[in-house]
């Protein structure tokens, strides 16, 4: 009897859409010296800003992450409040982190685990973590734990059902870390990409960076990915080709092609952030208040008339986004 060749799994329309949108063969080529130029220009712009800040040293560098960038370019008053606010975990805040861990396990684990298996594995691993999230999970009672597992199971099930099965040949990497040390290691840019697929060939871009979002779309999400693309370029010399915000509630990919202009604009955004946050921290600049949807998660919202007024006029029917994802 002849051996049966297993049929390739059929994709549903949502999975096929993701495959079509992410699997394009359009691979732009970038110039050889792009990384050197970007690094040179950004260091030239930042170095004079550090002149009056001798406390920023190789041992105590200025760190910039996507969160810090988005805070300082969003509401400056909230950025300052965030410096002193002690973060505490809650079920809505933990959902994004547990979902990311479950999807990381999906990519690396053999076999065919169900979404619920993945979520429980993620909870077990995070629970062992010595840091505050582990402590938070260990402190949950059975009902609270079930609530967290249930809401994350929803996200992971959506991902499994709407994202095509990830093949090893796509070179998937979860939680990929990038870091750029600038100005004699006095300034450090760092970021963690939720998922990357593919890789470059020579100067030909091939990588797709994917950020998994557990809340509703926000205008600033694409800036997070542009920052990661900037870090990737400083790290490898070749930018990724595509940036994708993947919305876990709707199973929708929101994508943007990477261009050289985008990288220069992001470099400028980093320089502006360094300038602003140095001036804010020394008091040379008065913090501006810029109300938006993120006022909901602001630690000083109850004392902020602008933020409270803004929230009062927003349509509260729309569910708020997780502050963590
Ligand atoms: S409530 Fe809104 S406007 Fe007020 S400080 Fe916070 S983020 Fe800024």
Mean pLDDT score: 89
Which structural class do you get from the secondary structure elements? alpha/beta
Could you list the spans in which at least 5 consecutive residues all have pLDDT below 50?
none
Bound small molecules, by name, code or SMILES, are: iron/sulfur cluster
What global shape is seen?
Answer: globular
Our estimate of the beta-strand percent is 5-15%
Helix-strand pattern:
HHEHHHHHHEEEHEEHH
Q: Give the biggest sheet.
A: 6 strands, mixed
| Terminal Cα span | 52 Å
Q: Oligomer, anyone? A: single chain
How many β strands by DSSP?
Answer: 6
The helicity comes to 40-55%
User: What is the C-alpha radius of gyration, as a whole number of Å?
Assistant: 21 Å
- Helix tally? 11
What does this structure look like?
Helices cover 47% and strands 13% of the residues. It is of the alpha/beta class. It has a domain at 91-162. Strands 1, 2, 3, 4, 5 and 6 form a 6-stranded mixed beta sheet that branches. Strand 4 (208-213), helix 9 and strand 5 form a beta-alpha-beta unit. Bound molecules: iron/sulfur cluster.
């Amino acid at each position: 009897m002849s051996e049966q060749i297993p049929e390739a799994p059929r994709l549903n329309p949502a999975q096929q859409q993701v495959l079509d949108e992410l699997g394009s063969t359009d691979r732009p080529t970038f110039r050889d010296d792009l990384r050197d130029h970007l690094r040179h220009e950004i260091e030239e712009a930042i170095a004079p800003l550090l002149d009056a800040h001798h406390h920023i040293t190789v041992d105590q560098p200025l760190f910039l992450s996507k969160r810090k960038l988005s805070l300082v370019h969003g509401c400056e008053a909230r950025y300052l409040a965030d410096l002193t606010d002690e973060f505490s975990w809650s079920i809505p805040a933990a959902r994004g982190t547990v979902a990311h861990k479950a999807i990381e396990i999906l990519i690396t684990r053999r076999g065919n685990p169900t979404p619920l298996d993945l979520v429980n594995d993620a909870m077990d691993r995070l629970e062992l973590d010595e840091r505050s999230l582990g402590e938070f999970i260990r402190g949950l009672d059975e009902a609270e734990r079930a609530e967290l597992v249930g809401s994350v199971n929803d996200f992971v099930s959506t991902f499994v059902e709407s994202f095509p099965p990830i093949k090893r040949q796509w070179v998937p990497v979860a939680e990929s870390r990038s870091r750029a040390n600038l100005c004699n290691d006095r300034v450090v840019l760092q970021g963690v990409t939720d998922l990357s697929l593919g890789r470059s060939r020579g100067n030909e871009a091939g990588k797709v960076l994917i950020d998994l979002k557990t809340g509703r779309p926000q205008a600033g999400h694409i800036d997070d990915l542009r920052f990661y693309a900037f870090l990737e370029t400083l790290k490898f010399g070749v930018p990724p080709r595509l940036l994708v915000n993947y919305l876990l509630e709707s199973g929708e990919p929101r994508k943007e092609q990477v261009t050289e202009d985008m990288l220069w604009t992001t470099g400028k955004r980093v320089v502006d952030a360094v300038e602003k946050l140095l001036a804010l921290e020394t008091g040379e600049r008065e913090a501006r208040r810029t109300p938006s949807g993120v006022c909901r998660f602001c630690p000083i919202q109850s004392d902020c008339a602008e933020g409270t007024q803004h929230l009062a006029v927003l349509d509260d029917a729309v569910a708020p986004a997780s502050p963590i994802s």
